[in-house]
Amino acid sequence: MSVLERVFLAQEFLTKLLTSRERMLVAVFSLGFSQAQVARAWGVSDPSVSRMVKRIRLKAERYWA
Predict the structure, then answer these.
(1) Where are the domains of the chain?
(2) Which end is more exposed in the chain, N or C (fewer Cβ atoms within 10 Å of the end residue's Cβ)?
(3) What is the pTM of this model?
(4) Which is nearest to 18 in space by CA: 62, 55, 65, 61?
(5) CATH number of the domain located at residue range(s) 3-63 in this protein
């Protein structure tokens, strides 16, 4: 698979399969924020962020399976 194809698939995954909040979570992680920092900034618990991460991983596993 070419780099261009992988970029297209990643873009499709982000825009079509993730919610806006999940996309935002991916974005803040890509900037280097930790789960604890995200939880504090969003006013949610660390386990809530962990559950969001788990949902994203499950979606990714199904998408790229």
Answers:
(1) 3-63
(2) C
(3) 0.84
(4) 55
(5) 1.10.10
